[in-house]
Structures are given as structure tokens and as C-alpha cells.
Fold each of these.
Amino acid sequence: MPETLDEAREQGFRTDIVSFVRRSGRLNPRQQRAWDEHAAQLVVDVPRAEARTSVDPAYVLDVAATFDREAPLVVEVGSGLGEAVVHAAEATPERDFLAVEVYTPGLAQTVLRATQRGLTNVRLLQANAAEVLTTTLPEGSVDELWVFFPDPWHKARHHKRRLVTPSLAELAARAIRPGGTWRLATDWAEYADQMLEVIGANPSFVNVHGVGAVAPRFEGRVRTSFEGKGHAAGRSITDLEFRRV
């Protein structure tokens, strides 16, 4: 194992703090079949850098070529099992959807859902979202950015792993077009407060519903199994909506 940061970089280890922990997971037969038959079409093959979920910083996604058309782009960070992104893609076929996720079973389930519905406006990217927003996506290419129910890392010592930070807000400002939208949702009230503070402090964004205000439930966000767990545990859901200025 590397003993210093320099040695870690030289040996291909990730040296930054990320908001996820890599977990192994087996695909069930249906997921495996969908992956084998459709991943080449739906999952964007990107060159890697340091880690399995990294993206070579020299690589820039050609959005129009990826979807074979010009259309508004919605990017969901942490798409999980694909419930939200597939539902939205089916409901709004005039938009393109890019699902960013690190866990292979979640990606495979999303591929399965999309192919069952015959969708052509969904693509998937297995990568660290921060890298995708930093270099992979062209500047100002995103019409809407979705971050729904990111891991709250609720223990104080783990807050450094939270996804929504001042640095992420800077990256989001780079990727979202002027006038575009950043939508978020969480079932942890304290995390919602942090999101409001962090994004509200960034001059590139304005809270659509007023300073420090929460948004009504986004009608385009289907209730997922993850959200259902939050309701079952007695936690309320907070939606937030910011506009890129």
C-alpha cells in the first residue's frame, strides 16, 4: 500500500475525499442479461484516470453525438436504481437524460428499466460526479441538474464526505447553463439546511422560492423506494430549487 499522497497518485489510488464508498454487488439474472445486451448502447464508455470511477480529465463528452440529437440535457447525480431518471425520460421524451452513478447493480437496473420501456433518451455514466462536472461535461451544457437523496453521512465525523459542498456548487455553476435549474431533495432536515446555506452562498445561484426557502415537491420526481424508506422512518422530505444566474 502507498505511504504518501505522491506514492498513491503514482500507483493509481484516489487521493481525494469522495461522497461514496465502493461496494461490490452481484447482478441478478435479469440485470445481467440487460447489461450484456444493452450496456454497449446505453452506458457511455469513458477513458479512466486514477480509479475505476474516475474519468480522464482530457475527455469531454460530445453530448449531441451521445444522444444522436440536440435536446435539453438533464443530469441526475446518484441515480440509484434509475426509478426517477427512467420515469422522467419516459414522461418527457423531448429531453435527454444522463444518469451518473458509481454502483454497477444500480446502473444495470437502470439499463433494464430503460430497455423495458424502449427509451432512447437515456444514457448512463459510471463515474465520480465531481469529475463529471469538472471536465467531462462541456461548460454550460446542462439544462437541469438533479441531486435527489444523496447519502446524508449523518454522523458529524463523516460530514466531510457529503456531496453538496461549496466546491460542488462551483462545479455545478460551471456545468449548468445560465437560466438552468438545480433541483435537490433530501429526507434529512439538517442536510437540507446545509444545502440551503451552501448553494445560497454561491453568487451563481438564486433560490427560486426566496432566500432560505424550500420548494414544493417537484412534480417530475417520482416517489422512489428510497424516498419511501424515509417516509417509513418518519422523516419529512425537503425539495430545493435553484436557478443558475
Amino acid sequence: MAQVIEFPPIHPGDPVLVSATTYIAYRRCPAQGLGRFRGRYPPESKASFRGGLTHGLIARHLQSGPIDDPEHAAREVIGSTNLNNKITAAGLNRPSLLGPVISEASDLYRRFTKLPVDQFERAEVALLCEVADGVTLIGQVDAVFTGPLLRDWKTGPLGDPLEQLLFYALVWCLQEKTLPRVEAISLQTGESLTQTPSLFELSVVAARVADLVNFVRRSIEPERRAGPWCRYCPLWQECPEGQAALAINN
């Protein structure tokens, strides 16, 4: 049965591309979210590099079968993807620095191999839906299973992944006209979260995305909200709230 969500009205304006990462940044701190639309992104980090490498190994496993030598495969993944261009930015431009990250990613991959992947269908599935003139929602799901089930692998603690999962579910529902289940699994801790969103929950997310787009198009002065995310925010040096948060946590 087709699942229909009515997207709220949106102000006309310049094209806007909304990803899950930008949406979550906006939900945490509108100023940080707006910064992403202006090209202000957090610097590359060792953790994000390791995460990208682990996801590359998992995708290779799902598409081609189990990997006998994860460390060797990890170097192949780096050489054949944009991770190769991120080595220096992540501070991993020496073998003594890159080697431990490859080992960590390989260990996370081995933990992944202990998990069931029955009814797997597709890996690294791109999501894209134009919800209004010039407004496109995008995302990438780590894996899709029969159901459908959208699964996201976390290479750190599970944290609170629900907002990201609901964003994916919204774009999937708009694109495929079916209501998926969503799931996040931490390879580091073994924690997981599985949920079947309701149409009402996804309508709430749609309203929040519409607010974000209207906010960007109307050039409203953004609210600043301090929190743990300030540590990785590229705007902290010009943000009194962020500086105060970092001073308290250091």
C-alpha cells in the first residue's frame, strides 16, 4: 500500500540540498546547520576517517563476500576511494599513524562479520527526493534488507541515532512510497536501536525539514545552542556560546 506524506509549504528561493547530516546539525544548533549551507564543515578527523574505512570494508563484504585479509583490503579501499585524499587532513600522513587506524577499522569489520545479514538486498543505497521546487532531500543508507529495513552501522558508541534514522525513513517513504523499519547497530559496543516509524512521526520530520529550508531561504539570524557538538564545530571561534561550552568541558 502506498504511504503518502504531505510535505508542508516552503518559501520560494534558491535551490537547497538537505542531507541527514545537515538536518541533524540544524536540530542541534541552527547556526551550525546554516554554516554547513555556507560551506563551513568540520575538519576531517581520525574518527571520521576510520568510520569511512570501516564502511568501505563492510560494503565490499556485502557486495563481494567475506574478506580474508581486512588489513590488505583496507589499503585497497583507501587507494580506490576519496579516503586517499583525506589522509593528510585527518593527520594520518605517516605509516605509523595510518597503520593503527587500519587495524581499528579491520577489528570493527571483524565484529561486523559476527552479525547476521540475512535478507540483505543492497549496500550504500542512495536516497534522493525533490519535495518542492529546488528543494531536494538526500541520504545514503548503509544497507537495505527485505522488509524493507534500513540499517546504519555505527563505528563509535550508538549515541542517539533516531533523528538520523527518521530522516532516512522520510526520504525513503517519499521516494519509494513504502514505510520502512530503521535500525542502527554500534559495532564498537554491540548496542542497537530498531524502530518502525509511523506516518505521523515522519510528518513531524517533514515539518522540521520545511522549517530548515524556510530558515535558510529567509536568511534569518540563527539561534546558537551550545552542547557537546561544539567541539567539532568550525564556527566555535566566532561563537561565544561555543567558546563557553568548550571552556567548561576542557
